[in-house]
Every structure is written in C-alpha cells, then in structure tokens.
Amino acid sequence: MQKKIPQRQCMGCRERKEKRAMIRVVRCTDGEVRLDFSGKLNGRGAYVCPNPECLAKARKSRSLERCLETPIPEEVYDRLAKEMEGTPLG
After folding, report:
1. Does residue 19 contact residue 8 with C-beta atoms inside 8 Å?
2. Is this prediction's pTM over 0.70?
3. Three-state secondary structure along the chain?
C-alpha cells in the first residue's frame, strides 16, 4: 500500500498541493512570523505555492494574516518574494 502524501491548501490560489512543494509561513510561539523550510518549527502555519502570482493573491486578500491571526511584516513578504525568484515553479 502506498504511503499517503500530505496535502496543504495554498493561501493564494486555494488549491491543494503536496506539502513539500510549498513554502510554510509560521507564527512562532513568541509571536514572530518566519519562513519555515524544514516544516518543523513550532507554531501556527500557513502555506503558499512557490509562485509569485499566488503570493500576490495572498497578499492582496490578506489570507496569510487571517490564517496566522497576526499582521505579516513587510520583510516576510519581501523574503518570500526573493525565495520564489530562486525556486523553479512546479
């Protein structure tokens, strides 16, 4: 029997995709918002496709802020955009 592949919903396009193919944004227990590439940081997480269009949609609709229940600093959005430039879309 094949092992179940974890799926998560993108906060931009709202599509369900493989967890490993997405970027996790986490509100840590100390209240700070960070990017989590290991997928193991403690805290509340939200996922975005490595696609600049999805990031733009999530930013415009403020879905990351609603999901994490906290304002997202500009630096986090900037870092997400930089990470997406170096990530092949898929």
Report:
1. yes
2. yes
3. CCCCCCEEEECCCCCEEEHHHCEEEEECCCCCEEEECCCCCCCEEEEECCCHHHHHHHHHHCHHHHHHCCCCCHHHHHHHHHHHHCCCCC
Integer Cα distance of 3 and 37 in angstroms:
22
- Antiparallel, parallel or unpaired: β 44-48 and 7-9: unpaired
Q: Residue 34 is encoded by which pair of tokens?
A: 């960070």
Q: How far apart are CA 70 and CA 75, in angstroms?
A: 14
Rounded distance, CA 85 to CA 71, Å?
24
- pLDDT over 90 percentage in the chain: 86
Locate tokens 């999805």: which residue?
Answer: 54
Residue 84 confidence (pLDDT): 87
pLDDT tens readout for residues 5-32:
999 999 999 999 999 999 999 999 999 9
